[in-house]
Design a protein that fits this description.
Layout (H helix, E strand, L loop, with lengths): L7 H4 L3 H12 L9 E5 L7 H7 L4 E6 L2 H11 L3 E5 L11 E7 L12 H5 L2 E12 L5 H10 L5 H4 L10 H10 L3 E13 L4 H7 L4 H6 L4 H18 L2 E2 L2 E14 L3
The structure holds S-adenosylmethionine.
S-adenosylmethionine binds next to helix 2.
């Protein structure tokens, strides 16, 4: 499978829309005495900063496997927060923390259900583990992007790239309940109103479609034709209207209280 990188500028294009689930996730964590907070898959750090604001006395650490993201986080949101480049599948804090949060990241970790015991071990007894993942992988935006990548002539370069995936809220609730947690799990479908010529393409080119687009960079003409065809299909699936382009976006939220 070809490896992809992250582009903080492109990812931050919809920072407001992407930030709202983080705030809503955070609002369900009822932790008061907090010494340490960990943000796994912290990205460019703009949301990690909110953790430092919420718990001003806590030591806040952001971890991400993308050097580009951590570079941006350190440059723009350093100071109160310590950032580290590491892979959450193998990295662990020296001591368990009071709050572990992971926003819009676990969908990029295949088989992450099996990782839940390891993640829970990073949290103190009585502490909190909260995460949010997109739950829209059967939405037209993903189906179209994935299908096109599997078609000739694109499949040779884009047919074997990372595609994000997640489970439904009940699956996470059962898995964490079986591990002794008290779990609050729910889903929300946001109805984003987007503007511009190809706003759905702009959105997914920073996340779900990025691996395919990057793999195709090896053949610039092919990449250009993939982008053009992808935009055409996305415009048909998400037509412009007098109020903009409506893009429903389902997300899954999980807040688990670790047994004390
Ligand atoms: C969609 S971004 C989310 C960033 C941030 N949490 C936010 O909500 O804006 C996903 C992030 O997960 C990171 N990531 C993906 N797999 C990872 C892994 N195995 N270990 C650490 N970070 C990972 C990526 O580098 C990327 O920055």
């Amino acid at each position: 499978m070809s490896k992809h990188t992250w582009d903080p500028d492109r990812y931050l294009t919809y920072a407001d829309e992407r930030g709202r689930p983080f705030v809503e996730l955070l609002s369900r964590i009822d932790a008061h005495v907090v010494r340490d907070v960990l943000d796994l898959g912290c990205g460019p750090g703009n949301l990690t900063t909110l953790l430092a604001e919420r718990w001003p006395a806590a030591e806040v650490t952001g971890v991400d496997s993308s050097p580009e993201m951590i570079e941006r986080a350190r440059a723009e949101h350093g100071g109160r927060v310590t950032y580290e480049v590491a892979d959450l599948r193998t990295w662990a804090p020296e001591e368990p923390v009071d709050v572990l949060i992971s926003n819009a990241t676990l969908q990029w970790v295949p088989g992450h259900l099996d990782l839940l015991p390891r993640l829970l071990a990073m949290v103190k007894p009585g502490g909190w583990f909260a995460f949010q993942v997109p739950g829209n992988f059967d939405a037209p935006s993903h189906r179209i992007t994935h299908a096109l990548g599997g078609e000739p002539p694109y499949a040779e370069l884009a047919g074997d790239v990372a595609w994000p995936a997640s489970y439904d809220a009940a699956t996470y609730l059962r898995a964490l309940g079986a591990l002794g947690c008290e779990v609050d799990a729910w889903e929300t479908t946001y109805l984003h109103v987007l503007h511009g010529e190809d706003p759905v393409f702009d959105w997914i080119s920073g996340t779900g479609a990025r691996p395919a687009l990057q793999a195709l960079e090896a053949d610039p003409a092919l990449r250009a034709s993939y982008e053009e065809e992808l935009k055409r299909r996305l415009r048909a699936a998400y037509p412009a209207s007098d109020i903009g382009v409506l893009m429903p976006f389902r997300r899954i939220f999980v807040v688990a209280r670790v047994a004390g």
